[in-house]
Structure formats: C-alpha cells, structure tokens
Amino acid sequence: MALADIKPIQWIDGKVRIIDQTRLPAELVYVDMDDYVAMAEAICQLRVRGAPQLGIAAAYGLALGARRIKANGREEFLSKLSQVSKVLASTRPTAVNLFYALRRMESAAGKARTIADIQQALLDEAKRIADEEDAANRQLGKFGAELVGDGATILTHCNAGALATGGYGTALGVIYAAREAGKGVQVFADESRPLLQGSRLTAWELMQVGIPVTLITDSMYGHFLISGKIDLDVVGADRIAANGDVANKIGTYSVAVLAMENGVPFYVAAPVSTVDLSLASGDQIPIEERSPEEVTHLRGVPIAPAKVKVANPAFDVTPHHYVTAIITEKGVIREPYQERLRRVA
Ligand code: MRU
Description:
binds 5-S-methyl-1-O-phosphono-5-thio-D-ribulose; single chain; Rossmann fold; 2 domains; 11 helices; globular; alpha/beta; Four Helix Bundle (Hemerythrin (Met), subunit A); 16 strands
C-alpha cells in the first residue's frame, strides 16, 4: 500500500468516511457516518484519533450536524449549531486542534447569511482545515527531514502518522520526508500502553509503506538507548503551551528524560495548530483520564485483579527543557520557545 492509499478521513457524498482505528491491525474497516452523534462517539472511542485528525473530525462532525438542523431562521439555526459544537467539544479535552477547528468553524458559520450558506460555509471550512493540515504536515516533514541523518534509527512513541492526521503525519511525516529525500531510515516503535497505538497503528502503518520497523515494549526503550541503537527520537504533540511544554501520549515524558540522559536528540513534530498560546505552561494543559478497563483488560480479557484501583491518564507533559526542537511547518524552533512560538503561532 502506498502512503497516499491510507485515507483515514474523507468527505464523500454528504458522509464522512473514516478508518475505524480500533479494528487495526486485524482488519482495515471503513465506517461511513452521516450524523454528528456518530462522529462524537467515534472520537470518544478512538476510532478516529490523533491531534490534527481530531480537528478535522470535529470540523466534519459540525458540518454533518449542520445538515440535519431544523430551524425557523438563522438565529435559531446558529443556536442549535452551537449545541452541536458543544457536544463535539466535550469528547476529548487534551488535543487543542479539536477546539481550534471548532472555533474556526463557528466563525465561518457566523459570517454566512442564510442557512444554506452556513451549511455550505461549514463544509468548505472543514475541507480547508483538512487541506491545511495536510499541507502543514508535508512542509514540517521537509524541515524535519533535514535533522535526520542517512541511515538513522529513529524512535517514535504512539502514532503520529498518516492515521493520526489527514494522511501524511507529523512525527512519521518527518520520517516519510527523510525517505523521500533519499535517506535510509529505520524506526523503533514502542507499544504505547495502554491502547497500543505504537504496535497496532505505527507498526502497521510503517509496514504498509515499506519502512523498516522494529516493535519494542515501552520498557525496552532505555535498553536500546544505552546500547547506542537509537540516533534520535521524534514524537507528535496534542498541545504545546506557550513556553514550549508538550502534552503527548502518556509515556512521552519518560522517553524525553531518557533521551537527554543518553545525549540523544528529542524532537517534537507538530503543526502550529497544536500550539496553544493561551496556556503559559504545561501544568495548565487538561489531561484526559480514561476508563480503568483500558488498563485492566486487553481486548476484553482481564489482565489485572478485579476491582484493583487504576489510574489512566492518556497524556503527560514533557517540560520544554527536554525538547531539543519543535518541528513546525513554519520552521524548526529551538529555545527560547516562549518568544519563538509566539512569532510563528
Ligand atoms: O489518544 P490518541 O491516540 O488520540 O493520542 C495521540 C497522540 O498522542 C499522538 O502522538 C498525538 O496526537 C500526535 S498526532 C500527530
């Protein structure tokens, strides 16, 4: 399968078609949705996931919702639209792209005159968001590829690839761009417990496009680092605070600290839409707490004693001083992040 054949989210004839990522890698299943409630459910269940893609999904979800609203006039329509937007906004709290996209959508709706114009404006804006994310990923990939040496072994955490975006990837986008630039690369993907986005999704995605990948458990990372097997780390981000602190999939902080200890660069690849200048530092980033069953069960099979107390934060925050650079579509940003992020975002 070529990278272009991985189409995780598409608008087709009034419906949104997604790859149901909960079914991978066992089967590649597409699901069509024609209402926003199905989209909200898909986001909560991680059928559709990854920060940039959550923005696209929320935008298409609002466009779907708008097509079903019955209203006697513009004001009533906009008020009902705002309720739909609230439902979509309540699905997942950490990835800022979701809120960024909904804000843009509401603003586009507010500028249109008639109900039909609003519905069209919402669809146009959702498509624009999807196209912009794709272009941003490809551009940041090019900047990031310059940081990758020929023959490099790269560790990545979670899935920040085509499946997490509109179809190219942020962290994996850097790797794809390095390969497109003619460099030999290989990847170590860690499992990314508890939901195994690394093994289920990253390993699957890289194998589809023919990039050599070695799957390791999360706890093996230190071993491979200290043995000199990893040249650099590249991960994605769900939200980057104004000071450069980065929220990403739980376990990212441990990866970053071990990287610094071993003198290995730790890069974060993310579009500017992931930067949230309204939050001064990472402590203010809301961290999603997910259901205990994700930790106590694997595919429905218990792997922990019944009723054990569980904590399941889906993300952690890596303080900016562990981040070697943030790779964006506007360039590679290094310390001081505060000032430089403000300039690009
Ligand atoms: O819970 P998920 O699977 O949505 O988490 C995804 C991640 O943490 C990704 O690393 C992040 O969104 C970057 S995606 C380009």
